[in-house]
Amino acid sequence: MARKTVATITRKTMIIVTVITLFVGALFGYEIGKAKYIAKMALVQGGLMQQLEDVKLQVQAVRMQSGFIMKGNSMYVINAGQMMLMDKNMTLKDGTEVTTTGQVMMKDGTTLLMQNDQALTADDKLINVSMD
User: Fold this and answer.
1) What is the pLDDT of residue 22?
2) Which carries the bigger pLDDT value, residue 86 or residue 27?
3) Which helix (H) or strand (E) holds 32?
4) What is the strand order of the sheet 103-105 is part of?
5) pLDDT-based confidence at 28, cuts 50/70/90?
6) How confident is the model over 45-83, as pLDDT tens digits?
7) For burial by CB atoms within 10 Å, which of 15, 106, 109, 128 has the most?
8) Rounded distance, CA 121 to CA 104, Å?
9) Degrees (nearest 5) of the Cα angle 102, 108, 110?
10) For 101, phi and psi rounded to 5 degrees?
11) Which residues contact 116 (CB under 8 A, 6 or more apart)?
């Protein structure tokens, strides 16, 4: 009779352990799924935020019509309201030189380095362009 009791206890223990294991596994699976969902939503939101920044930058380019903008450590040239990534150094009609790294050598010899969210207008004025 002692063996039957031990077998019964062992069987009950195994059932309890199995139920607990299944419950913990299901809970863990739920938490992993939730974490993946949150991560995916963050990526989607990040992508939407980038698209919004791109649209704001295009709007600024249309407002300026011509000039240069430094955004995301990249220089963009604006011509007729169209913005393109600057792929080579440029010299303007008045002698101002603008490099792809954002260095500007003005016609009077003044040198400056453009920072993110700064623009150089067609009349050589350095302005801050807020993307907010």
Assistant:
1) 80
2) 86
3) helix 2-64
4) 90-91, 97-98, 103-105, 111-113
5) confident
6) 767 777 777 767 666 666 667 889 898 899 998 888 788
7) 106
8) 12
9) 40
10) -90, -5
11) 70, 71, 72, 73
CA atoms within 13 A on the CB side of 94: 12
Query: Contact 60/129 with Cβ under 8 angstroms?
Result: yes
Q: What is the pLDDT of residues 81-92, one digit of tens each?
A: 788 899 999 998
Q: 70 with 117: CB under 8 angstroms?
A: yes
- 3: which 2 tokens? 């063996």
Q: How far is the C-alpha of 17 from the C-alpha of 30, rounded, in Å?
A: 20
- As given in the structure block, the two tokens for residue 19 are 């139920």
pLDDT in tens, 119-129: 888 878 888 87
